[in-house]
Amino acid sequence: MAIKRDLSDLPPAGLAPDDSPRFISVLVDEWADARDDDKPTANGTPFRHSDAGKCARAISYTAAGIPRSDPMDITGVWNTSLGTLIHEQWQEALQRRWPDAEVEVTCSMVGADGSGHIDAVIRDYPSPLRSDAPWVIAYELKTVGGFGFKAAVGAARKGTPAEGPKAAHLLQAAINGRAVDADEVIVGYLAKECISANVARRFGITDDVGRFAAEWTLTREQYEPLADLEAERVAGILDLVADGKLAARKSPEMPVGAEVTDPETGAYEVRLRDEDGGVVVTDTASTWECLYCGHQTLCATTEVGRIPIDTVVSIGEVA
Hints:
The protein is of the alpha+beta class and 319 residues long. 33% of the residues lie in helices and 20% in strands. The chain is built from 9 helices and 11 strands. The chain has helices at 26-34, 56-63, 74-97, 146-153, 167-179, 197-202, 220-242, 296-299, 309-318; strands at 47-48, 102-108, 114-122, 137-144, 184-191, 213-219, 245-246, 258-262, 267-273, 279-286, 307-308. Strand 8 and strand 9 form a beta hairpin.
């Protein structure tokens, strides 16, 4: 029988999706129901390594035991759950290739009361620098979106250098490496969307793996100072909480002297002191961090600077 070539009965191009999908969300709905964003840290500490580089106020909320006012939305659940699946599959593949590799290694922070899990620790890795003792690598794996990956590897815009990993990812890797006395730490990115073949050619990416994956290796001399600075910052935040205060809304992602003034938008001001000791606003901008913070709504009701914990708790109870 001849194949009919008339496709005129097909729906027209540009067919809009259903207003109310009935079945497609069953998987993410289950993931959302099973999610626990307030689960204890690895060793029951007030700080978790995965919060490295976060706003000091956000770290304070968690350390003080203040519940989140903004649970993760369904898109966040989808993204993070996909990341979890990729992590688990990658870890299984790593151990098939390197059977002695350890995954989800529990560790304690050096210099502050924190704890966390390392995605992988590869011991006894061959190194030309030392043969009389094990060479240890601490690995931090991150799944990122397509644009974020392009920016990280320098394929976002012509003439724009590679941004590298986010500061928070480098800091988490650094404190994890410090915890196991690693010789190297590696931050690995796996993109959830590949760079197209045309874009790859334009930016000189010749390896197909480079279209969706990248690694950044830090030596001990590079990562230890980062770990020590973050530990000092976290210890200071925890000291404030122990004294009944929450830290100001500042983070390593913002310029020195910057503090968030409007958590609803992430707007911040850079405030510096002049020669007479007065405070001068030298710049204004906004940070993306507030939009992804689990305490955003609550934080919007609080003041700038260091504030008493009791005032925030009472506001949350009224709300």
